[in-house]
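Onboarding guide, step 5: your first structure request.
Type a short instruction followed by the sequence, for example:

Predict the 3D structure of this protein.
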Amino acid sequence: MSQVIKRFWKEVQVAPVDDGGYAVELDGRAFRLPGGTPLVVTSLPLAEAIAEEWRAIPPAAGFRTSDLPMTQMAGTQLERIGNDRDQIIGGLLAYGESDLLCYRATGSLGREQDLLFDPVLEAFAQRHGVCPEVTRSLLPLVMTASLQQVFAKALERMDDSALTCASICAPATGSLILAIGLAEGWVDPVSALSMASVEERHQMAQWGEDEALMHEIEKSGNDIDVALRYLALCYGIETNQA
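The system replies with structure tokens like these:
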């Protein structure tokens, strides 16, 4: 759990910087991320959304970094994605090796997975030229060289903002294919969460609601929403979300 911090500033401002972009300032001083990088973003809507997060902290109130999702996302992009794209892409490719959409159950769960997953694999194949294999076996699939190359190229084509989004969506869904679809805009978040949670929801339909599972599904949905809101703001699309 992250450390509780007391609000230490009075005013939050967004200020343009000389070489382009917008800095978020606390009491007139540029805010720096934990690694020392100034919090400067290229999109004014994103800068304003970040500033609003800081303004929303009540005076003298305690808060955690998790209360500042757009700030966290910007920090990830500025201090992790931008500095080590190759390592980030390598980590994301690992999700493709055990992609949720490629591993199916038998029986009624398997049929539900087929209905949800197959259209996404077809859409991926139409856009990227390769249809991933599917198994119902307990044995792991071996990723083909052609699929690995397609995954890598899709990630390499992404700018830092989209790669930041994908880096959140892959663990939230357990699927690199869904993460790519979300970042590229051809998978919607409601469908992605439905696919990511199909096994848990199937289990609860049989045995009753499980509070821990419900919490995990809610967290995954929130992570997806945050990542997509961040990406929209990076591209200058204002949202109504707080």
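Each response can be followed by summary notes, for example: Residues 156 and 196 are 24 Å apart (CA to CA).
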